[in-house]
Design goal:
The complex is a heterodimer of chains A (437) and B (376). Chain A is 45% helix and 13% strand. With 437 residues, chain A is an alpha+beta fold. Chain A has three domains: 118 residues, no CATH class; 48 residues, no CATH class; 226 residues, no CATH class. In chain A, the strands form four sheets. Chain A has a five-stranded antiparallel beta sheet with strand order 2-1-5-6-9. In chain A, strands 3-4 form a two-stranded antiparallel sheet. With 376 residues, chain B is an all-alpha fold. Chain B is built from 18 helices and two strands. The N and C termini of chain B lie far apart (58 Å). The C terminus of chain B is likely disordered. The chains are: A alpha+beta (437), B mainly alpha (376). Chains A and B meet through helix 3, helix 5, helix 6, helix 7 and helix 8 of A and helix 2, helix 5, strand 1, helix 7 and helix 8 of B.
Chain lengths: 437, 376
Amino acid sequence: MAADPVTRYFGSGWRPRPWTVLLIGVGITFLGLLLRLAGDAVAPLRVIALFAGLITVGSAVSLRLRTAGQQFEERMESAGVLAIAAFAALLAYWATDTAWDSMTMALVVLIVAALAGVVLVLLPTAIRMMAVGVLVLVHFGGMITAATTIDPPGASAPWVSLKAWLWYRPYLQFMYLNNAYHFYSPEPGPPALIWFHIKYKDGKVKWVKVPHRDDDPVPIHHTRLLSVTESAAMASMQQPPPPVWGDLITRRTRSGDAFDIPLAPPNVMPVQVQYQETQDYSLRMQQSYVRHIAILNAGTANNPIAGIKVYRLRHTIMGPQAMAEGRNLLDPTLFAAFYQGEYDKDGNLLHVKDVKDADGIQVDVKDPFRFWYMPIYYESKDQINNPYRPDMRPDELQLVDCLTRHAQLDILKAPSQQPPPDPNDSPWEDRAEKPQP
Amino acid sequence: MTTPLDLADADDATAPAWLRACFRFLFAAVDPTGLGFMRICCGLLVFYNTLVYSYDLMSYVGPNSWLDVPTQNYLRKEYPVVYPPDNWSDPVRVEKEGSFLWSIFYHVRDPFWVVAIHVSILIVLLLFTAGLWTRVTSVLAWIGAMQYVERVQTQLFGQDTMLIILLLYLMIGNSGAALSVDRWLELRRERREQGRRANLTLKPSWSANLALRLVQVHFAIIYLVSGSSKLLGAAWWNGTALWLCLANYNFAPMRVGLYDQALIFLCNYRPLWEICLTSGVVFTLFTEIGFPFLVWGRQLRPFMVTCSILLHLGIGLVMGLTVFSLLMLTMGLAFVPPDVMRVFVDDLLGKLRGWFQAKTAPPAAARKDELVLSRT
């Protein structure tokens, strides 16, 4: 039988020796360090050399630990291999640009891990097992900490967990073991969506909905986009302090009356929860997502983006009675939309400050609708003689769609100067996302 | 080290019984076949998960991705950390300290190199799945997977968590000791060097046991936390929580006619609706809260593992979280005793071998011709 290629090339007795492989690895890593002197022109080569060097060193450690015995001399030699591996990681650390700070952090962890390995290997078996046992306990202590740092409803997390989190945070974040495992608790909620209303300089508009099942054929991609929107949807349910709240509701009511975007009736949503201020973290995420969406839908040089209005939505899960009645799963009233502000293509908020005219007179253009619910509900076609009842027939109802009205609104123009409603500018009919009949 | 640990060193009579029991729990050598099977399952799932990033790679890890550079810097360097006070009077202190996030995709922004790194990681994952140089590729697979999860912080969900947990423990245990190219190379070398005297039996591995135990304990913690945190929610008490999962348009297969019709049918009969959903909630809570306590006994273990399988099949089918469910099922394999796992895998391999031989064997007519030709 013909010898296989490996045997033909290396001979039947060939076995890579850990020390040889280790020295080759250190040499390649050192080459990476030398390449740093050559500047950024060979940066990719340097990174490749560092990776190759560290992988080779890791292979040497693996080879050594696979064959090493438990006698003290053997353990000493294994410790030596690990110590040199730590040195190779140190070389890589020196060779890495400070701008690559997350990689230097990983290399520091590698050095510490290798040095910890030196200590572990030198320990007698029983003590080593105890040490590993302690590490296992510390590790799972981190899992318990991550799980208990989530605030329960209406209360704060245990002080002990919050303190332990400070200690565990580097480990858990570095290892991505910081999930709290509170899946679908306290209870499954409606998914968050983000809708972008892009307006171009020539007046043309485009709705971009994230996520959108027609655009996301890969299920994992769709679920990842749901995480994107969830990160941008954290809002405070607390009402602002009375003076601020008074100002907010006055401005909202006045502007609502002027632009025909009323507050929702109490049976649709209590007024106290119609204002939901988005948390700072989510606002930052929204800005990033606006920039991303702006790049994907940039328009042309002559017709750039004029503004992007952002809406945070919750797609309410239909109740069993409505489903039994055959209601549409995508009925507009199932979407609770909260306006997040209008941004430019660089993610800067527009209309952020009140503007004064040339005479220094206050012109109230500070966005009065920001963080407010854009009501979408059915009302009776004949409100006076036949007011709304939940059991009304569809032909007796008409849709009040303040989301579409608001999207078409130009806040810088007076009510009388607003453009006429554009039937093509609607979030409900742009694409054929429809459930089975 | 894969060198057998001498448990006798630690198992002497002077050590307390609880300590010896702990040592046996963590370090007793077991057949590594189960861990090898978990490696293959996990490797395939992680490969698929990583491959899906290719669908919109630059939106995930490119410079103008969902998380662009300023936002990355915010998360890495300015993300607030809350310090609870040590007394009753001080307010909570918040410091902008950032997070311990690390990924090469924070630094590599050239699309060519982004794609090159992505392809390299996919290759490493294939090698890991096949079990080639597993001790090295398992570490590289974990590092590779971490490059994405540490970079796409706002695009993660439970699946990524499970994936990293599994890769971590498969890296600790000798997951390439069985069902791997490494094992095949080892056998070939043994046969070549020892001939008929070659000892081809699979050696038990203490690191395989350690990895399996870590997966078991972690799995139990996940279930306990997930189940007990659900008890805070009204919908889990009144039995409607499952409906909120089943009728979620963005997760559930609501656009599949049969599924939609089944839900409508259920809704038309309230007692049926109530009984089905309450039963589902009770089953979920029983499985998640009961599992960490009941799975350790030999008698109840098959029952609890079956409950877990049913739970995750349900999640996979109706919530669109197929890969997440498959990862959880892979983790659940850690509870199957190593000898049972060995029998199952041997049986599976036997069937595969038989199927392969049947597929590759020439048809009867051709074999007849061969015989005739050989005789002549």
